[in-house]
């Protein structure tokens, strides 16, 4: 059995939710796993796993737009603490003596794997943007190149890239493997049903969207994630209900909603697609991945890319909802056995097992 350091990005909840599934699986197979994360990832995992806290990159946004100045300042002001926690991580590498490192887009563990000449496995959705071909509009190609460069800076070339995606494309090398999105067990237990409301999720303030939702009094919206000094109460318009986040409450609302209206995060899109919910995506300005997710939703015919949070966009989405739902029904021709495999994450678990059960030294590869 192997000693494994598993680095998990703490930005958002998607990284930690899939890491929970994979770390559980590794432990069930008898491997010894030390988890390394920060922010929300650490808070989500520390209670259940042996977890070391580090500092990581935070992205600051305002009204669904990345704030470059806010992001730079927030990360610079934590520099001293980051250095101290990096020293603790280096001590962990020395004392634990891992056989390999798995990273879900967590850079410090990945770079220390390279320094210690350890096999490095990436397991995330980010590497599809580096190692999978996408046909994007010309105006997005500079952002695509820029994003690939950032991924390369964040994570050195992995020896094997286990990449999850809800939109399949051609890979650019023989050491990248594509898999369906990793679904948490709680999602697989849900029974999708048709309620009388739309689920709205945003990361932080998104005032323009909230103002637009109030213009549709005949529709009911349940809103999560809008944290604005006490406004997480029932709104002044009776069609909006602001709810404090809870995992069980959110998942029950996800299973029962008519549709999802949210930013274009990978994990929520994947879970909404599994539950066959039409999705109106508002990509965060300044994040190429979210724009790519929204484009892929459009191409699959199960969602809509909402560039502007205005009344015209919402009205168009409500008109298109029956068509989007019908596309899900057409896709449901796949067998129940296939859906079960997807929900159990069998394929990616089997691939990871085969890598760890072999000679880990053979994973070492000079460059992808």
Task: Looking at this protein, list some descriptive labels.
Rossmann fold; 15 helices; alpha/beta; 2 domains; single chain; 368 residues; 16% strand; 44% helix
Helices and strands, with pairings:
Layout: E1 3-8, H1 14-28, E2 32-37, H2 39-45, E3 51-53, E4 61-62, E5 65-66, H3 68-76, H4 79-96, E6 100-104, H5 107-115, E7 120-124, H6 128-131, H7 141-154, E8 160-164, E9 176-179, H8 185-188, E10 198-201, H9 207-213, E11 221-224, E12 240-243, H10 247-256, E13 259-262, H11 266-274, E14 279-281, H12 288-300, E15 303-305, H13 311-331, H14 336-344, H15 346-357
Parallel strand pairs: 1-2, 1-6, 2-3, 6-7, 7-8, 8-9, 10-11, 10-13, 11-12, 13-14, 14-15
Antiparallel strand pairs: 4-5
Helix pairs in contact: 1-2
CATH class of the largest domain: Alpha Beta
- SSE run: EHEHEEEHHEHEHHEEHEHEEHEHEHEHHH
Number of helices: 15
What class would the helix/strand composition place it in? alpha/beta
In total, the number of domains comes to 2
What is the general shape?
globular
- Average pLDDT confidence is 87
Low-confidence blocks of residues: 228-236
Radius of gyration: 21 Å
Kindly state the percentage of residues in helix: 40-55%
Q: How many extended strands? A: 15
**Fraction in beta strands:** 15-25%
CATH superfamily of the largest domain: Glycogen Phosphorylase B
Under CATH, the topology of the largest domain can be stated as: Rossmann fold
Strand order of the largest sheet: 3-2-1-6-7-8-9
Q: Quickly give the CATH architecture of the largest domain.
A: 3-Layer(aba) Sandwich
- The end-to-end distance, rounded to whole angstroms, is 26 Å
Major sheet: 7 strands, parallel
């Amino acid at each position: 059995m192997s000693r494994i350091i598993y680095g998990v990005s703490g930005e958002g909840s998607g990284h930690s939710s899939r890491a929970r599934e994979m770390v559980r699986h590794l432990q069930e197979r008898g491997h010894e796993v030390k988890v390394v994360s920060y922010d929300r990832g650490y808070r989500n995992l520390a209670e259940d796993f042996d977890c070391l806290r580090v500092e990581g990159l935070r992205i600051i946004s305002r009204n669904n737009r990345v704030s470059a100045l806010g992001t730079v300042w927030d990360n610079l002001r934590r520099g001293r603490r980051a250095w101290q926690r990096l020293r603790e991580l280096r001590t962990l590498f020395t004392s634990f003596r891992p056989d390999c490192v798995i990273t879900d887009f967590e850079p410090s563990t990945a770079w220390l794997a390279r320094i210690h000449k350890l096999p490095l496995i990436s397991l995330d959705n980010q590497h599809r943007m580096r190692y999978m071909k996408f046909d994007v509009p010309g105006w997005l190609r500079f952002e695509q190149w820029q994003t690939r460069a950032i991924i390369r800076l964040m994570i050195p070339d992995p020896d094997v890239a286990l990449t999850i995606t809800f939109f399949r494309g051609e890979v650019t090398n023989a050491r990248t493997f594509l898999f369906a999105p990793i679904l948490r067990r709680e999602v697989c237990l849900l029974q999708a049903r048709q309620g009388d409301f739309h689920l709205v999720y945003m990361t932080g303030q998104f005032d323009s969207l909230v103002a637009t939702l109030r213009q549709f009094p005949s529709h009911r919206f349940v809103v999560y994630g809008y944290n604005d000094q006490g406004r997480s109460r029932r709104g002044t318009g009776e069609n909006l209900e602001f709810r404090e986040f809870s995992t069980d409450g959110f998942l029950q609302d996800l299973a029962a909603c008519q549709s999802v209206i949210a930013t274009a995060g990978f994990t929520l899109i994947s879970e909404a697609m599994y539950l066959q919910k039409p999705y109106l995506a508002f990509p965060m300005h300044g994040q190429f991945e979210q724009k790519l997710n929204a484009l892929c939703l459009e191409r699959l015919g199960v969602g809509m890319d909402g560039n502007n949070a205005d009344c015209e966009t919402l009205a168009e989405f409500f008109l298109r909802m029956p068509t989007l739902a019908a596309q899900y029904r057409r896709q449901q021709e796949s067998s129940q056995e296939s859906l079960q495999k997807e929900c159990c994450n069998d394929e990616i678990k089997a691939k990871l097992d085969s890598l760890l059960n072999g000679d880990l030294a053979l994973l070492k590869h000079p460059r992808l």
